[in-house]
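Issue: ligand-bound run for adenosine-5'-triphosphate - logging full I/O for the record.

Environment: standard queue, default settings, no custom constraints.

Inputs:
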Amino acid sequence: MRTRLCLNDVAKNFTMHLQDGIRIPVVAGVDFAVEAGECVVLGGPSGAGKSSILKMIYGNYRCERGQILVTEGETIVNVARAEPRRILQLRKSTIGYVSQFLRVIPRVPAVAVVAEPLVAQGTPEDAALAIARDLLARLNVPEALWRLPPATFSGGEQQRVNIARGFIAHYPLLLLDEPTASLDAANRAVVVDLVREKKRAGVAMLGILHDTDVRERIADRIVDVTAFSAAAAA
Ligand SMILES: Nc1ncnc2c1ncn2[C@@H]1O[C@H](COP(=O)(O)OP(=O)(O)OP(=O)(O)O)[C@@H](O)[C@H]1O
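Outputs:
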């Protein structure tokens, strides 16, 4: 199956229960698909709903209406109606999420933090650790840090550990939430290469990328969410 992600007529509002039930419309009528091997970038101004769309696909936000169809092998799963346990299964095998923020796990060395998603997918630990070391080296994380837990790392070092962790495993669908924010040019170029390698491996990617240079180098298509936020406000 070529289509890995398909959103049909998705709508999202927030209701602020502690503030007189004020309703904030975010998006409506969201319709687009992402095919295997392409990188689609969400465009539109700040507050238009890009992050909310990514969070709905990852199952962090519920949507009020519509379908979010994710291809898992020969099966199609509607994330919009899936049980939490099903969503956790999808996150292990099918949907990866790369953000700029690392959730630090106490006492676990950086190399094991990076290797963990690959081990969870069934790769033997030694092989996964070797791939993790290779990725940390590519992302210019100093070798002296690999055996330390990332809690004390600089913001940029933690971000690069997180990128390595996000790219190491094979997820047929990868969500990119500003993965290059505040990286230097050399490391941005590494992320561009990693995205191109994933494309060649047939991974479907959907991203938010404010960096226009990176966006131009990796985006096959831009989906502008302005029309979806206008539809919600109407
Ligand atoms: N958890 C939440 N509770 C209430 N409102 C929210 C929540 N998350 C997002 N919003 C609102 O939804 C709208 C869309 O926000 P979102 O973060 O999706 O936009 P964005 O396009 O990603 O913006 P940016 O480019 O600035 O990150 C905003 O008006 C925001 O205030």
